[in-house]
Amino acid sequence: MSNEEKVSITVLLPGGRLPLDIMDTALQIARKYNLGIYLSTLQNLRLLDVPLSLVDEVKKPLAALGADFKAAGKFPIPRVCVGRDHCKLGLIDTSDLSGKILSHFAGRKNTKAKLKIAIAACALGCSGIGTSDIGIVATRNGYDVYAGGKGGTHPKSSRRIRKDVSEDEVIRTLDTLIEFHDLKTATKQRMYKLLDDPDFPFAETE
């Protein structure tokens, strides 16, 4: 198999949490097939150098534990900071809000590639809300929502578009932003390119 094509398998980890049974099984698989394990910047677990012929065999025991895998068109799992229960500055349970967002968009298919969402439990924004397409920050008065950030070689800082809104309003704002992104994007495009579109649904908020 030395010349066989090799690929990566990404196990999605909602809320940045790695269940112990999936962690243990991934370790066993990595040892069995001599694979590398990478914890990605999007807080997922990636098995590296999987021979193409073994993809189904590697996925099977993980899928049996309820693991979900990265695939085109899936709604992006928000990147989160550790949250209120594990940080004295945290104002919210970021995993809980991430779960509510994923539940709300569970039936949505064919979300455009490269869209990134981040949730921060306080204004420090440790999850990278300033360099994400959509950033959600907990405040003492609700939530601020940002749009249009990106990293890379030409980083862009996000723009605040909602201030001190409720959790329900955060979800409605996401609905509007994602619908607009889909409408204006043929394949993949970062949100910052749409901020100056005359139809962009939100003005910058001080």
Describe the secondary structure blueprint for this structure:
Blueprint (H helix, E strand, L loop, with lengths): L5 E7 L7 H14 L2 E4 L5 E7 L3 H9 L4 E2 L9 E2 L13 H11 L12 E4 L13 E6 L2 E6 L11 E7 L1 H18 L22
Parallel strand pairs: 5-6, 6-7
Antiparallel strand pairs: 1-3, 1-4, 2-3, 7-8, 8-9
What would you give as the CATH superfamily of the largest domain? Answer: Sulfite Reductase Hemoprotein, domain 1
**Assigned CATH class of the largest domain:** Alpha Beta
CATH topology of the largest domain: Sulfite Reductase Hemoprotein, domain 1
Largest sheet: 5 strands, mixed
The percent range for strand residues is 15-25%
The appropriate CATH architecture of the largest domain is 2-Layer Sandwich
State mean pLDDT (0 to 100 scale).
94
From the helix content, strand content and strand pairing, which structural class follows? alpha+beta
Task: Describe the overall structure.
The protein is an alpha+beta fold and 206 residues long. It has two domains: 6-69, Sulfite Reductase Hemoprotein, domain 2 (Alpha-Beta Complex), CATH 3.90.480; 79-194, 2-Layer Sandwich (Sulfite Reductase Hemoprotein, domain 1), CATH 3.30.413.10. The protein is built from four helices and nine strands; from the N terminus they run E-H-E-E-H-E-E-H-E-E-E-E-H. The chain has helices spanning 20-33, 55-63, 94-104, 167-184; strands spanning 6-12, 36-39, 45-51, 68-69, 79-80, 117-120, 134-139, 142-147, 159-165. A five-stranded mixed beta sheet has the order 5-6-7-8-9, covered by helices on one side. It has a four-stranded antiparallel beta sheet with strand order 2-3-1-4, covered by helices on one side.
